[in-house]
Amino acid sequence: MAGRAVALSGGAGRLAGGLALAFVVALCMGTLVPLALAAEPGRGLRPADWTAIRFTLMQAGLSAVLSVALAVPVARALARRRFPGRGLLVTLLGAPFLLPAIVAVFGLIAIWGRSGLASRALGLAGLGPLDIYGLGGVLLGHVFFNLPLVTRLLLQGWAAIPAEHWRLAAQLGMDRGAVFRHLERPMLIAVLPGAALLVFLLCSTSFAVVLALGGGPGASTVELAIYQSLRFDFDLGRAALLGLVQFGICLALAVALLTLGREAGFGPSLGGPVARRDIGGPLLRGVDALAITLAAAFLLLPLGAVVARGLPALLAGLPDQVWPAVLVSLSVAIPSALLSLGLGLALAGLVTGLRGGAWAEALTLMGLAASPFVIGTGLFLVLNPLVDPFALAVPVTLLVNAVMSLPFAMRVLVPALRRAQADYGRLAQSLGMSGFAGFRLAIWPALRRPAGFATGIAAALSMGDLGVITLFADPQTATLPLTMYRLMGAYRMEAAAGAALLLLALSLALFWIFDRGGRWLDRA
Amino acid sequence: MTRLLLASAAAVLAALPALAQDSSAEGRPVLTVYTYDSFISEWGPGPEIEKRFEAQCGCDLRFVAAGDGAALLGRLRLEGARSDADVVLGLDTSLTAVAAETGLFAPHGLSPALDLPVDWSDDTFLPYDWGWFAFVYDRTRLKNPPASFEELLNAPEDLKVVIEDPRSSTPGMGLLLWVKSLYGDDAGAAWARLKPHVVTVTSGWTEAYGMFLDGEADMVFSYTTSPAYHLIAEGDDTKAAAAFAEGNYLQVEVAAKLKSTDQPELADAFLAFMLTDAFQDVIPTTNWMYPAVTPESGLPEGFDTLVTPAKSLLVPAGDVPALRDEAMAEWQAGLSR
Question: A163 pLDDT exceeds 70?
C-alpha cells in the first residue's frame, strides 16, 4: 500500500486537494451561515416539512433502486454486444440525463401523458388514458433521467475489467456463472453503491419533476420546502435548517455507501481487445437485444418527442434573444467544466491518498445535496454588500455549476485514479518519478478517458442548468435555459420548444466533444 | 488535452468582454426598476416601455428581472435599504400587505382615476394592470364548460384540470384565495371535491399552461385574457375562458417607489408615466392583461371577444397574511391523498 498514492499525495498535490475541499465545503455549507445569521427567529420545522422529508427519502430511495436495477441488464447487454451504431446509441442514451427538467417532463408527457403516444395506443384498444401522475410519475421521470447515468457508469466499470482477465476466463473455460462471480460481481459491488448514491442525491433535490409529475401536494420535497421558505415566507432560518437536513441525509448515506463500495482491484492491464467467450447462445443474444431495445425505446421516444416539437421552430428561425444566450451559456459551461475537472483531480488525489478518504469524498458530494436556492441566496447575502451581484452573474454561476457537477467527476475519477495508482504507482516510484512528473507520465495517461467523460458531463450539465443564474441574471446575461423559460412564460411555446432542442443539441455536442477528446488523446 | 483546454479557454476569454459591456449612457441619471422575468423579455412590455420613457425622461431606465412577484419581494428583503432599486413593479395584492410591513416602500402621492373592477385606495402600491383568474379551455375539446365553481366541483370525474402550486407561484396563490373567499371554513372540503379533477399541480404557470396545450387537461388555471394571446398573436380562436357565476378572482399588479431610492423625482415621474397611454397601451398585447387605465384608443381588437365575469372577487390585501397559512393547510390536506 505504500506506493499506492505516489503521484498525487505529494505536498503540492495534498495542498491542492485540501484547498479544493475547503472551497467546496465553503460554497455548500458556508452559504448556510449568512442565511442563519440574517434569519429572524423562525418557527423551525413544521409538520408539513416532515411529510416532505419522508416523501423525499422514499421517492429518492425508490428511484435509486429502480434506476440501478434496470441499468444492470442494459449496461451488461451493451458491454458484451457489438453492433453497427452502438457508439451512437450509447451517446444518445446519455442524452436524457443532460436535459433540463422541464424539457424532459414535456418529452415524457408526449409519450406517457393522458394524451400521449401510449395513451392513444391504449385508446385504440378501447382502454382509458394512462394516469402517471403521482409517485409513479415521479419514479418514471427519475428513472428516465438516471438510467442513462447509471448505465454509463456501469459501462465504465465493465470497460475497466482488463482484457487479460477475459482471456484467462476463456482459457479456463469459465461458464457464465463463473464469469459473473469472478469478474462482473466484484465490479458491480464496487460501482453500484456509488451510482445508487448519486441517483439518490440527484432525486432528493429534485424539484420541477416532482411537482410536475407528482400530481399534488402529497408529493413534496425538501427542496420545495426550501424554495417556499426563501421565496414566499422569507424564513431564512427555516431554509438554513432544511438545508442542514438535506446535508445530513446526504452525508450519512454517502459515508455508509462509500465505505460499502470497495474497489474491485483487478490489477494492471496492457489493454488490447476484449475477447469474450461467455456471450454465445441465441437465448442470451435475444435477452440482450430485448434489454437494449426496451431501454432505447424508453429513453429515445421522449427525446424524439422533444426533437419533433422543436424542429419546426428551429428550422423557421429562433427569436434573436436566443443567440446571445447561447454565448452566455457556452461561456459558463466550458470554463465551469474545466474547473470541475481541475477540482475533481485535486480532490480525487486527496481522497485516494487519505485513510478514511470516504469522509472527504462524501464531503465532495455535497454539491448534489446543496440546494441551488440556498447557495444562491447565501452568496447573494455575502456578495451584495461588497459588489454588484449582476457583475458577477457569469463567474458565480460558473463556480456553482462546477461544484454541482463535481460529484459526477468524482464518481468517474476516483476509481480510475485508484486503479492507475495501484497499477502504475509502484512502477513510477521505482523509476524515481514523483510529484508532477509522476502524475504526468504514469497516472494521467490512465485518466484521460475518464477525465474527458467527466468534463463532458460537467459541461453538459452546466449548459442546461437553471439554478443560481435566476438570482443573479440581468437581461443581458440570461442563459439559454433561462431564455427558454422566458419564452414559455410569454406563451411562445413553439419557440421555446425550438430553444429546447437547440439546448439539447448543444449539451450533447459539448458532452460528445469532451468525451471524444478524452478518448482521442487516449489513443494519440 | 492541454491544447484543447487552452483553445477553449481562449475562446471563452474572447467572449467575456462582449458580455460584460455596460450599456449605460454616460452622464444620464439611472432609474433602476426591479420587475419579474416575463416583463423584460423581448416579447414583454419592457423594451417598448423603456424606449418610450427614456424618450421623455432624459434618463437611463434600467429593468432588472428577478423571477416572479414573490421572488421580487424576496430579493428586496435580502437587499433591504441597500438596494439599488428605485421602483419595484410586479407585486400583486397577495403580497402587498407583507411588502408594506417591511417598511421599504414610500407613498406614491398620486390620486389617479383607475379603471379597475374594484375600488382602489392604497397610498403606497399603484396598480398598472389587472386580470381575472379563470379556467381556460379549448372549445373544440370541451363543449360544455362548467359555468360556476360549484359546477366544476360537481362535474363528472373525467373533466380534468391542471393547476399551479400556491407555494411556488402567484396564480397558485390566486386560486388558493379564490377558493378561500368562496368557501370560507369549508375550503378544505372544496379542495377535496376538486381533487379528482386535478391532473397535477405544477410549480408554475408555464408548466401548467404547456401541459394544457399538450392536451393533458381540459382546463388550466390561467387568466380570462389568455385566449386573447392565441387570437391576436396566432389567429387561433379555439381557446376560451370560463366565467364563473360566483365571480372570478382578481389579480391586480402594482408598482411602488422604494424609500431608499436615490432618484426620488425620477421614480415619481416613472409612476406617473406608468398610468399614461404611452405605458398603458403597451400592456394588453405584451403582458396580456387589462391596463389599469384604459388608453384613449381603447383596448386592442380581439379583447372584445373575451369573457367578462359578472362579479370580481378580491380578498382585501390586509386580510391575506392572516388567511394564508390556514388556507395553505386546507389546500394541502384537501389535495393530499
Answer: yes
- CB B14: neighbour CB atoms within 10 A? 10
Q: Which of A228, A388, A476 sits opposite B167 (nearest CB)?
A: A228
Number of structural domains found in chain B: 2
Helices (H), chain B: 2-20, 37-40, 46-57, 69-79, 96-101, 149-154, 170-183, 187-194, 205-213, 226-234, 264-274, 277-280, 283-286, 320-335
Strand-strand pairing, B248-258 and B126-138: antiparallel
Q: Which residues of B touch A452 (CB under 8 A)?
A: 1
Question: Range of B34's domain?
Answer: 30-130+251-305
Taking an 8 Å cut-off on Cβ atoms, the answer to whether B229 and A476 are in contact is no
Cβ distance B288 to A491 less than 8 Å, yes or no, reads yes
User: How large is the average pLDDT for residues A73-95?
Assistant: 87
> What is d(CA A66, CA A196) in angstroms, rounded to the nearest whole number?
9
Separation CA A479–CA A499 (nearest Å): 11
Asked whether the beta carbons of residue B41 and residue A486 sit closer than 8 angstroms, the reply is: yes
Query: Is residue A258 assigned to a domain?
Result: yes
CATH number reported for the structural domain that contains residue A254 in this entry: 1.10.3720.10
Rounded to an integer, what distance in angstroms lies between the CA atom of residue B161 and that of residue B150? 14
**Cβ–Cβ gap B12/A488 under 8 Å:** no
| Same-domain pairing of B216 and B297 | no
Q: Give the bridge partners for B250, in sequence order.
A: B132
Using an 8 Å CB-CB cutoff, list chain A residues near B64: 390, 474-475
Chain A residues within an 8 Å CB radius of B288: 491
**A488 vs B201: CB contact, 8 Å cut-off?**
no
Q: Examine residue A397 and state whether it is found in any structural domain, yes or no.
A: yes
Overall number of domains in chain A = 1
- Are A98 and A514 contacting, i.e. CB atoms less than 8 angstroms apart? no
Question: 0.80 cut: is pTM over it?
Answer: yes
Highest mean pLDDT among A225-229, A250-254, A415-419, B133-137: B133-137
Is residue B15 less than 8 Å (CB to CB) from chain A? yes
Query: Could you tell me if residue A5 is inside a domain?
Result: no
Determine which of A211, A394, A474, A494 to mutate to test the interface with B (most B C-beta atoms within 10 Å): A211
Q: A497 with A481: CB under 8 angstroms?
A: no
Confidence grade of residue B9 (pLDDT, cut at 50, 70, 90): very low
Please count the residues of chain A. 524
User: Between residues 283 and 312 of chain B, which touch chain A (CB distance below 8 Å)?
Assistant: 288
Question: Residue A448 in contact with residue A521, Cβ under 8 Å?
Answer: yes
Asked if the C-beta of B48 comes within 8 angstroms of chain A's C-beta atoms, the answer is no
Cell of A313: 421552430
Exposure of A354 by Cβ count < 10 A (0-12 exposed, 13-18 middle, 19+ buried)? middle
ipTM over 0.95: no
Min CA distance, A276 vs chain B (Å)?
32
Same domain, B126 and B160: no
Q: Is residue B9 part of a domain?
A: no
Q: What's the domain range around A254?
A: 11-38+50-263+317-522
Note whether B255 and B240 are same-domain residues. no
What span, in angstroms and rounded, lies between the C-alpha atoms of A458 and A97? 11
C-alpha span between A330 and A328 (Å, rounded)? 5
